[in-house]
């Protein structure tokens, strides 16, 4: 299985593979469920292989560890998942 950081880099930098609508599903410890968000809402910091950031519904900046990412979807189809 490709590491999640490598997959996200492939989506961002490979123009052919990166065509389409991408969502990631990460496990939210408070809600105890997988939350799906558009890749467009994610902030990736170059060289940071541990976390990404996103704005939640209350406009709070959240830092999410990559190990909590469970799923990646392309155009609604599951293309990557990590066992729960």
Keywords:
84 residues; mainly beta; SH3 type barrels; 1 helix; 12% helix
Biggest beta sheet summary:
4 strands, antiparallel
What is the string of helix and strand elements?
HEEEEEEE
Number of helices: 1
Strand arrangement, largest sheet?
2-1-6-7
Separation of the first and last Cα atoms: 14 Å
Classified by CATH, the class is: Mainly Beta
Quick summary:
The chain is mainly beta and 84 residues long. It contains one helix and seven strands.
Task: Describe the secondary structure blueprint for this structure.
Elements: H1 4-13, E1 22-28, E2 33-38, E3 42-43, E4 51-55, E5 61-65, E6 69-74, E7 77-81
Antiparallel strand pairs: 1-2, 1-6, 3-4, 4-5, 6-7
Architecture overview:
- The chain has 84 residues and is mainly β.
- The chain has one domain (4-81): SH3 type barrels (Roll).
- The chain contains 1 helix and 7 strands.
- The protein has one helix at 4-13, and strands at residues 22-28, 33-38, 42-43, 51-55, 61-65, 69-74, 77-81.
- The strands form 2 sheets. A 4-stranded antiparallel β-sheet has the order 2-1-6-7, with no helix packed on it. Strands 3-4-5 form a 3-stranded antiparallel β-sheet, with no helix packed on it.
- A hairpin with a 2-residue loop joins strand 6 and strand 7.
- The chain is globular.
- The protein starts with a helix and ends with a strand.
- The model has no long low-confidence stretch (mean pLDDT 92).
């Amino acid at each position: 299985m490709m590491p999640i950081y490598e997959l996200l880099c492939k989506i961002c930098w490979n123009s052919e593979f990166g065509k389409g609508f991408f969502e990631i599903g990460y496990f939210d410890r408070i809600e105890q469920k997988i939350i799906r968000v558009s890749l467009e809402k994610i902030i990736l910091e170059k060289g940071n292989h541990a976390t990404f950031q996103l704005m939640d519904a209350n406009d709070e900046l959240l830092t999410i560890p990559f190990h909590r990412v469970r799923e990646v979807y392309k155009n609604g189809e599951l293309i990557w998942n990590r066992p729960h």
